[in-house]
Amino acid sequence: MKRRLPTLALTLLLTVGVAAAQDSRLPDMGSSAGTLLSPVQQDQYGAMVLAQLRHAGYVLDDPLLDDWLDDVGQRLGAASAKPQQHYTFFLLRVREINAFATLGGYVAVNAGLVLAADTEDEVAGVLAHEISHVTQEHVLRGAEKAQRESLPILLATLGAIIAAQQSGGSTDRGDATTAAIMTGMGLLQQRQITYTRENEAEADRIGIRTLARAGYRPEAMADFFQTLQSWVQMNQGDLRGQVPDYLQTHPLTLARISEARERAAKLEPQSTGFTSLTAARNPLLPPGLQLAPAQPASAVHPDGARFDYARERMRVFSASTPAQAIREYQQMQATKPLDDARRYGLAVAHQQAGQNAQALKELQPLLQTHPDNLWVQVTTAEVESASGHTAEADRRFEALLARMPTRAAVALSYARVLADRNTPAAGTRAVAVLRPLLSSNADNPMFQQAYARANEIAGDPVRAGEAWAEAAYLGGRPEQALVQLNNLKKRTDLDYYARSRIDARIAAITPIVLELRRQGIRDEEVTGGRLSFGVQAR
Question: What are phi and psi of 102, to 5 degrees?
Fold first, then answer.
């Protein structure tokens, strides 16, 4: 129940929006007169949702998986009806089948949805649908509608969620909170159902077109709908919990599947090159502009099977424990031999369990068969370093960096390996590896943690302190970040530029912390006097 609660709560909040208190310094969800959020406010709200999910421990942050999802999502975003929109894609480690979009172009995908998909195109179909909710302003209009019609219900539900966060996992309190949220959903359901169906139809139509423009199979959306429909038929019952969360918020009918297939069929002649479709329909392209034929999405990366590896890595990280993941692969192996992607997953499971010898045993044949596979190379280098083979690990990472110097998945993985050695030389090299990504990854808590640790062991406590504070802020701990920055400001060795950076972040974070305190939300580690200056890098 504890795992399902935030998914349930967020489904409600992200469908209808949350109304902030009047005169609040936090993003305001608009007024009854129809005043909508500015793009900056929308982005602030989406960032707050992501930060709180991280604070609750539901975000699956992993360099390789984030790199994969962002690549798929940004390809779709660039082909969407609003390619200028900024999108942030992130994974949730829960295995319920679900995905959602919220304000500011923030799009979440549950691990369970990826595990249920057969191809990357199917995941892309879901992302294209959620992106269309953003481009057609469905979430924004839903927020305005909720502010106008359902403010008391929303405020009561928000209070229930806050109580759940403070309950410390109490079963009784968790059940009471779930009941409060379900009550709110019941009151809103009838008002939202027609609105939701209209938006779903539009998101399907626009999303299928986006799939085609991005080079994915346009029929993949209908394929995944069919997969979900089959899942429901195999798990028939009267309990709501047996229906995937995605179908509870995205109602599915046979007519909807048929319509999706019909729309995709009309785009099928464009399936080997979607450029003409893009040029004809993208309003940002000048009339008559012809581009070179586009490659299918699967041809962009030399590792054409990357989805299979992403899915298996996600299987491991979404399991309750590494031992549980190993048992899952053993059960698969009892039925039939593991394919290469699942052997990779088993290797990752052994790695996470600290069983490096077993991990290398699974990885060695994959290195021979797939020498250019990024997933296999990075994981092998990590295991080699953990096994004491640092020279081999460094050679492998340096070769990858030479090919992909700004690839976040490579730089972050290498920096974490270097940080584990805890030597000034390793820290200096980690700083050099990460510095080129500083501007493009400023809002990535994994990057900030790695950059903080690298500077710490390299002997730059000021840069380390700034990065630790930023990691705390991005992780949903603004009060902790503020305390860290104020402590850092007391140092006597700050130069003018460092003091200016710190003052700017204090000025930006202070209003957020004050508003949270006004609403009765406090960081227990700060108020209880147990605040530590740094956080764990992993």
Answer: -130, -175
Rounded Cα distance, 389 and 385, in Å: 5
Query: Are 392 and 425 in a shared domain?
Result: no
Q: Which of 476, 309, 280, 479 is nearest to 380 (CA)?
A: 309
Q: Give the total number of structural domains in the chain.
A: 3
Q: Are residues 68 and 19 in the same domain?
A: yes
What range defines the domain where residue 246 resides?
4-283
d(CA 10, CA 158) in angstroms, rounded, equals 10
Judgement on whether residues 453 and 529 belong to the same structural domain of the protein: yes
The domain boundary residue, chosen from 403, 438, 469: 403
Weakest mean pLDDT among 70-84, 245-259, 366-380, 473-487:
245-259
- Contact (Cβ atoms closer than 8 angstroms) between residue 66 and residue 122: no
- The answer to whether residue 29 scores a pLDDT higher than 70 is no
Q: Which of 331, 304, 303 is nearest to 319 (CA)?
A: 331
List Cβ neighbours of 6 (8 Å cut-off, separation of 6 or more). 53, 56, 58
Q: What pLDDT score does 279 carry?
A: 36
For residue 199, which amino acid is it? N
SS3 106: strand
Please give the helix or strand (H or E) that residue 332 lies within, else none. helix 322-335
Sign of CA dihedral 422, 426, 428, 431: negative
Segment 463-516, tens digit of pLDDT = 999 999 999 999 989 999 999 999 999 999 999 999 999 999 999 999 988 887
